[in-house]
UniProtKB/TrEMBL annotation:
Gene3D superfamilies: (Glycosyl)asparaginase (3.60.20.30). This is Isoaspartyl peptidase. InterPro entries: Ntn_hydrolases_N, Peptidase_T2. Signal peptide: none annotated. The active site is at 177 (nucleophile). It comes from the Bacteria. Substrate binds at residues 205-208, 228-231. GO terms for molecular function: hydrolase activity, acting on carbon-nitrogen (but not peptide) bonds, in linear amides; peptidase activity. The keyword Hydrolase applies. One of its GO terms (biological process) is proteolysis. Keywords: Autocatalytic cleavage, Hydrolase, Protease. The record marks 176-177 as: Cleavage.
Length: 311
């Protein structure tokens, strides 16, 4: 008998307060999340792999200007866009990751190619982009990534030493890292994460998203995890792997392990954000310690949710 299957997605966590967003914008966010969820779930429905499902869901979110990934990536200190992504297969622990890539339309596709078509796990900068060209990936001109709101955000702090996570400031517009986790009919899990990083970031800063074990992790024996939030803390806490570890060695279930990492371990070191997780029984967990997190899940049982705020 085949397993139940499920998929969960996120579009960033942070200061998301009810009433700070217009109903029209809120509907746009919910529609974008629904589209990503539906396209990923459709792959699982016809017996496709968790890996293909999370890649598809993340591509949909990368193609939306609403989220800080792909098309909607924030501006760096020098006015460019440096994108990171990772993908991991729980079946055999294979993984691919890229960082500091520019012009690549879908960084998660490049991460998948690193996993499938190179002997490496993590490529960065010029080398990653050279590999993308060899693989024939789609590149876009800089104006494809231009978003007026992102530009305005950058203008406010660009000549300072400040940087910011998109979702950490109380404004009408929130953006964030995107991610997906899934369990397929064969009980295999996978995770994928993609981000444009921090506004006004300098020195080739890399967050947790592309780091296997920090922002992205998958293991059939435990869970698949994709994180979003203050990346430096997720790196220091090895957050994604910590969830897996609490299940494997701590004997916790998915919900408990996820909750401990987000609402205890990260908070203990000053980190804010959230994560999505799924196990090989298609159970999902979506904890966050901020005011909100763009999130959703869909299960073969018919249960589904799209949500933004805490309640």
């Amino acid at each position: 008998m085949k397993n139940p299957f499920s998929i969960a997605i996120h579009g960033g966590a942070g200061t998301l307060l009810r009433g700070q967003m217009t109903p029209e914008l809120e509907q746009r966010y919910k529609q974008a999340l629904t589209d990503a969820l539906d396209q990923g779930f459709a792959i699982l429905e016809v017996g496709g792999t968790a890996l293909d499902a999370v890649q598809r869901a993340v591509c949909v979110l990368e193609d939306s200007p609403l989220f800080n990934a792909g098309k909607g990536s924030v501006f760096t200190a020098n006015g460019g866009h440096e994108m990171d992504a990772a993908i991991m297969c729980g079946k055999d622990l294979s993984a691919g990751a890229v960082s500091l890539v520019e012009g690549v339309r879908n960084p998660v596709v490049l991460a998948r190619d690193v996993m499938d078509h190179s002997e490496h796990v993590f490529l960065a900068g010029a080398g990653a982009m050279e590999f993308a060209k060899q693989r024939g990936l789609q590149f876009e001109e800089p104006d494809y990534f231009f978003d007026q709101l992102r530009y305005d955000q950058w203008q406010e702090i660009k000549d300072s030493d400040h940087f910011q996570l998109d979702h950490s400031v109380s404004k009408d517009h929130k953006f964030g890292t995107v991610g997906a986790v899934a369990c397929d009919r064969d009980g295999h899990v996978a995770a994928a994460t993609s981000t444009g990083g921090m506004t006004n970031k300098k020195w080739g800063r890399v967050g947790d998203s592309p780091m296997i074990g920090a922002g992205t992790y998958a293991n059939d024996q435990t869970c698949a995890v994709s994180c979003t939030g203050s990346g430096e803390f997720f790196i220091r806490g090895v957050a994604a792997y910590d969830v897996s570890c609490l299940i494997e060695l701590g004997g916790m279930d998915l919900a408990k392990a996820s909750d401990v990492v987000v609402n205890q371990r990260l908070l203990d070191i000053g980190g804010d954000g959230g994560l999505i997780a799924v196990n090989n029984r298609a159970e999902v967990s979506l904890p966050f310690n901020t005011e909100g997190m763009y999130r959703g899940f869909k299960k073969s049982t018919g249960e589904s949710q799209i949500a933004i705020y805490k309640d």
